[in-house]
Write a structure and sequence with these properties.
By secondary structure, this protein is an alpha+beta fold. The chain contains 7 helices and 15 strands. A hairpin with a 2-residue loop joins strand 9 and strand 10.
Length: 330
């Protein structure tokens, strides 16, 4: 048996976790995804289809499963898992969609690939108030949302924890590239593990107090601000982060100063992984904030197109929010 990546528990032993599939491994993923695409009702939101995908995820290539498991144990200093060589045939894709609340309900091969890897990491969830609770969502430019701070916008997207306002935020966000932006615009990421040493003890202490509140993102309907909350929580040497630099506001001047310093620290340690077709990145949403540079869509069917999935590690924590024990949070 081939040995998997070795890491120490709870220790950021490296930067990012990476794997590029061999042609044989990619063919194995393609065969699993193709089989899933034929299972009736061929809908990724169907509970029976999800159960079949969960079982099939255990048949992913061994080296990929080992890498996913190692990432789950230790997401590294950057909090990223990068998977390359996935079987996405860019020349066989339909035109990039441009409708509001775009999602991928059909069990296409790319959607099945995103679900397979996400379900090996944890349980895929969605939110009823966002894109109608679809499990596989399209991140695409939308003409009516060009200037919005949302996944449908094309202006610069500020650093944020995904769904920072929500009490049950995703543990991981997965982004599978089907088609990149022509300008080479990538997802911008920054890890609190990198930024923490740049902050003063005073700023860290302020950020650990419930002196902040966060509004829901534009993609959510019928949502309000969060109760007051800290930005940093957990172990003093390795905290979690919860912030949206567009939607989080401090409740006092001292909090505003600390928040500004945090933003500057994150900006100084940021990276810009530019995904190509067949590449997927998972962000540890407890450690990583992400954004995006500005780009100019043409709305001609060739614009940037990502599939997005949200992953929870423990669905017991959100059971009261999931009607009938399903995957969608109310």
């Amino acid at each position: 048996m081939t040995a998997g990546p070795a890491t120490a528990t709870d220790a950021p032993a490296r930067g990012s976790v990476r794997i590029r599939l061999t042609p044989d491994e990619a063919a194995g993923v393609a065969a699993l995804a193709d089989g899933l695409s034929r299972i009736e009702p061929r809908a990724v939101d169907d509970p029976g289809w999800v159960a079949a995908a969960r079982a099939a995820s255990c048949e992913l290539p061994l080296r990929l499963r080992q890498t996913v498991r190692a990432y789950r144990n230790d997401p590294g200093a950057d909090g990223l898992l990068l998977v390359g060589g996935l079987p996405i045939a860019a020349d066989a894709l339909p035109p990039t969609p441009h409708v509001p609340e775009s999602a991928e309900p059909d069990a296409t091969l790319p959607a099945a690939v995103a679900m397979l890897i996400g379900l090996q990491l944890g349980e895929i969830v969605a939110y009823r108030d966002e894109k109608r609770g679809s499990l596989v969502q399209n991140v695409v430019p939308v003409r009516a949302l060009e200037t919005s701070q949302s996944n449908g916008g094309s202006v610069s997207l500020e650093f944020h924890t995904e769904n920072a306002y929500h009490p049950h935020r995703p543990d991981y966000v997965g982004l599978l590239c089907l088609r990149p932006a022509r300008e080479g615009v990538g997802t911008t990421v920054a890890s609190v593990r990198r930024a923490l040493p740049l902050l003063s003890d005073k700023d860290v202490a302020v950020l650990r107090e419930p002196r902040f509140e966060t509004a829901a993102p534009p993609s959510f309907r019928n949502a309000d601000r969060s109760p007051s909350h800290p930005v940093l929580t957990g172990h003093p040497d390795d905290p979690d982060i919860r912030v949206d630099f567009h939607a989080t506001r401090a409740l006092d001047d001292e909090g505003a100063t600390a928040l500004h310093h945090l933003g500057a620290a994150l900006e100084s340690v940021h990276g810009d992984p530019e995904l190509r077709p067949g590449e997927m990145v998972f962000l540890d949403n407890r450690l990583v904030v992400h954004g995006r540079g500005a780009f100019t869509p043409r709305y001609d069917g060739t614009d940037r197109w990502l599939h997005r999935v949200f992953v929870h590690l423990d669905n017991r924590r959100n059971r009261e929010r999931r009607t009938g024990g399903g995957a969608v949070l109310t």
